[in-house]
Amino acid sequence: MTEGPSAVLRALNVGVASLWVAVCAATPEFIWRGARVVASHLNAADLASALLVGLILAFCIEPALERFRHTAAQPPGPQSYNLVFRAAVGLAFAFASVCLHDAITAFLASHAADDAVRQAGLVAGLRLAGAWTVVPFCVALAWLTVGRARWRWVFAVLALASPGLAALMFSWQLQDWITAQLPASCILLLGYRQWSLGPVAGFFRRNVQVLLWVSPIWLIGALLFNWAGNQLGLAWTQLYTPGEAWIDVRFYLGWAIGLSLAPVPLAERACQAGIGK
Fold first, then answer.
1. To bridge 21 with a disulfide, which of 12, 140, 194, 239 should be the other Cys (CB 3.0-4.6 Å)?
2. From 3-12, 124-133, 253-262, the region with the lowest mean pLDDT
3. The domain containing residue 153 runs over which residues?
4. CA-CA distance, 277 to 268, in Å (whole number)?
5. Which residues are listed as membrane-spanning (predicted)?
6. Burial class (CB in 10 A: 0-12, 13-18, 19+), 118
7. How many CB atoms lie within 10 A of CB 246?
8. Using an 8 Å Cβ cutoff, are 118 and 109 in contact?
9. Is pLDDT larger for residue 203 or for residue 151?
10. Is residue 189 part of a domain?
């Protein structure tokens, strides 16, 4: 009777970890686009309001949440750094979070007074989030279910097909699909090998190294391919413009951040055994 709830909990853990990675992959793009909007009309009043909210978060909300997290386990021990440093770090992160909130709000709504325009901005933001999270989510899901004999091939195929699914859902051009499919497939396949190369808890962090190898090689190779096509007068070889390459840099940066921050569900230790099957 306990196996059912345990299996459901494991599935939820895998889903949350995959979503964690995916959300981080989309975050730099929201920051970049929103910050450009905010920077165009930033003034002293905006800075003062952000600072005020940051003070409340740093000195009240964040300490209360930290104390709540530690209450169930054990009281927080003595701090190894002084109070001024701790407050400064907390204030800096709180201030950054307020600015990020304003940036995303500005990007989604574009400060439009018309509700229809705001609604359109929200839809555009949701489409952007979906387009940037589909592939990292499916890849992480495939990695974390590799030890499940019933599902590993299903999720592996889903991960391989995820760039194509995103292309269909979000009306990508052929070049967009190619520039997502090839590196994502390499990252997926090389990522499977990381299960056998160390502890389970470090699996995502080992895949950060995979990303940091594959993405620069891919981006540089694609730009060189573009250059060679230009020299030969072959217009069909143009995979990237420099601006589009910069978009993918932000995407891979966010994906790497997600893998470095997201926890690996330790209940999935069977994944290591599944590699050899």
1. 140
2. 3-12
3. 3-26+134-275
4. 15
5. 12-32, 44-62, 83-109, 129-146, 153-172, 210-229
6. middle
7. 13
8. yes
9. 203
10. yes
